Amino acid sequence: MRTSHTIGSLVLDRLHRLGLKHIFGIPGDYVLSLFQLIEESPIKHVGTTREDCAGFAADAYARLHGIGGACVTYCVGGLNIVNAIACAYAERSPVVLLSGSPGLAERLTTPFLHHMVRDFFTQRDVFEKITVASVILDDPLTAEREIDRALAALLQYKRPIYLEIPRDMVLAPVRVSSLTPPTTTGESNPIALKEAVDEVRTILSSSERPVILAGAEIYRFGLQHELTTLVERMGVPVATTLLGKSVIREDHPLFIGVYGGLVGREEILEFVDQADCLLTLGTLLTDVEDVKIHSTLLAAGRTIHATADSIAIKHHRYEGVQFEDFIRALSTAPLPAFLPRPLPTRDFGAFEAPPSHAPVTLQNMVGYMDGLLNEHTVVIADVGESLFASADLRVRKSAEFLSPAYYTSMGFSVPAALGAGFADPSLRPLVLVGDGAFQMTGTELATCLRHGQTPIVIILNNRGYTTEREILEGPFNDVHEWRYDEICTLLNGGIGHRVETFGAFVQAMDSAMADSEHLHVLNVILDPKDRSTAMTRVARRLAKRLSQPSPNRS
Predict the structure, then answer these.
(1) Contact, 385 vs 410, CB < 8 A?
(2) What span, in angstroms and rounded, lies between the C-alpha atoms of 463 and 442?
C-alpha cells in the first residue's frame, strides 16, 4: 500500500503509531512549520520553559510510557537540550529528539545563518555521540527508510535518536510504502538462546545461594512481570540497583532492598556478597553499585550478566541473543527451585514519630513519608540527598520510582514530574528536590499549573549542595535562599507550606495528600548539617575508599 505524506507528517504519524501522545519543547523559526504539523496531528505539544526541561520531561515520559519526544529549534534549542539527552542515553530512555534546521535552499544563498555554530552539521555531529541514530531528513526519496531505521534503533536499544528536518523539507512530499511502524531489528538465534538458558541451568544446579540483581533495563523493556515470575518460580532473593529501584514491588517477600556499594545497607551488601551465583539482569554496573562480588564470581565462573548490550554467562558471550528474549526464556525455563533461607532484616518496623515540636529532619521526614506512599504515587527524586534519602523509601508498585541515579544530573525532578503526569495521569508525582536543583529547573511548575497537574514538591532547603559539602566543604557549595513556600503566589497557583518542625511537616503532607486538586510546594527548612542515613553510609564508604593507598604508590 502506498500513500502520500510529507516528511514532517510521516515522522509524526510513525511516532503516534508507536504510542507517542505528547511531545515537549519550545518553538523557534527553524521549526515552526513542524510545530504547525504537530498542532494538526493527534500528538499534543506541551510547551516548557526551557529546552533542557523538555528533555527531562520527555525522558520521564519515556520511562513510564515506553517512548518520549521533544521538539526544539536549531542549535540555540538543540544544544540547550544536550545534557538531558545525554542523561537519557546514559540511563537507556527511548527519547525521540526532533529538530528543525536551516533550509537547504537558503544554505546555498546565505552561508552564515543565525543560530549556526561552525557549520550546518555541528548540531548533528554533537548528537551523534549521545544517540543510537542521528539522521538529517533532507531527501524525500530516502526519508521513510531513514526514519524507520532510526526508530528501529530506538526500540532495540531503548536509547535516544535524533531526527533533524531542514525547514524547507518539512512539507516535502514523500511516497510511503507502509503505514506500519518499524519493530526492533533482528531476532534471537534460537540455538544460541537455548544454549544460553541451558548454561544458566547448569550453573544454578550446582548453586546453593544464588541472588538476582535487577536493573533499570528490566523496566525499559517491559519485563517486570517476567522478572517477578522468575524470582517466584526459583525462590531466589532479588535486590535492585539504585537506578533500577522499583523494577519489582518493594513489598515482595523475596525483595531484599537496594544494593549499592555506596548506598546499600550493610546487611544487604553482606547478603549479596555471600552469594555463590549472581544473576545481574538489566543492570548498569557503575561506581555507585561497586559490585566487587561480580568480578570475584566471574573469575570462578559463577555469573550471569545480561543487558541489552550483551549476554555473558561465565566466560562466554552469546552473540545473536536479544536481552528481552533471554529474560522471557528464563522466566519459563525449567530452572532449579531453591529452599527458603533467612533474608536480611527488612527494617520495616513501625515509624516512631518524634514530638510535633521537634525539628524536621531527613530521617523523620522520610520515615513519615514512607507510610503515605500508595499505588497511585510515583516518587521522583533529584540527585544528592533527595536521592539518598529516598533510597530507603518502600515503593508499593513496580516502576514507580524515577531518578537519574547513574548520570546524576541536577534539575531532573521537577520537569520529570511534568512528563510523568502526562505519561500516566493515574499517578501523582511526589517530588524530592534539593534547593540547588530546584533553582535550576523549578520554573517547570508553571507548566504543571498550566496543564492542571498537581504534583507534591518537597524542597530540601539546606542552603546549598549537601553532597559536595560532604566531599569538600567551601563557600562554593552555598546557594541563595529563596522563599520557596511563596513561589505559588508568583506562579498564581498552588499552595505553599513553610515547614520547620516535624508537626508542620505532617500537617503539610497530610493536607497535600488529601488535596488532589492543587499543586503543593513544601519548603522544608533543614539543618545544613543534617544527613540522611544513606548519605551517612555514602560518606563513610567514600572516606574509607579515599583513605586507601593508591595501587600505583610504591
Answers:
(1) no
(2) 16
Report the amino acid identity of residue 328. Answer: R
- Residue 434 and residue 526: Cα distance in Å, rounded? 11
Cα angle at 145 between 141 and 147, to 5 degrees?
110
Q: Is the pLDDT score of 361 beyond 60?
A: yes
AA identity, residue 274: Q
Whole-number Cα distances in Å, 298 to 178, 205, 278, 338 = 46, 17, 9, 22
Question: Residue 398: its pLDDT value, please?
Answer: 64
Q: Residue 1: its pLDDT value, please?
A: 46
* CA 13 – CA 180 distance, rounded (Å): 10
Tally the C-alpha atoms within 13 A of residue 193's C-alpha that lie toward its C-beta: 17
Tell which wins on pLDDT, 551 or 116: 116
329 three-class SS: helix
347 exposed, middle or buried (CB, 10 Å; 0-12, 13-18, 19+)?
exposed
Cell 529549534 -> residue = 73
**Predicted local confidence at residue 546, as pLDDT:** 59
Cβ atoms of 96 and 85 within 8 Å: the answer is: no
Give, for 417, the enclosing helix (H) or strand (E): helix 413-423
User: How buried is 536 (Cβ within 10 angstroms: 0-12 exposed, 13-18 middle, 19+ buried)?
Assistant: middle
Contacts of 365 (CB under 8 A, 6+ apart): 389, 458, 502, 505, 524
State pLDDT tens for residues 150-162. Answer: 999 999 999 999 9
Q: Locate cell 544527613: which residue? A: 531
Query: 163 CB contacts (<8 Å, ≥6 apart)?
Result: 11, 96, 97, 98, 99, 135, 137, 147, 150
Q: What are residue 239's phi and psi, to 5 degrees?
A: -115, 165
DSSP states of 5-68 as a string?
Answer: EEHHHHHHHHHHHTT--EEEE---GGGHHHHHHHHHSSSEEEE-SSHHHHHHHHHHHHHHHS-E
The 10s digit of each residue's pLDDT in 313-351 is 988 899 999 999 999 999 999 999 999 999 987 665 678
- Cβ–Cβ < 8 Å for 133, 98: no
Instruction: Give whichever of 45-49, 109-113, 253-257 has the largest mean pLDDT.
Output: 45-49
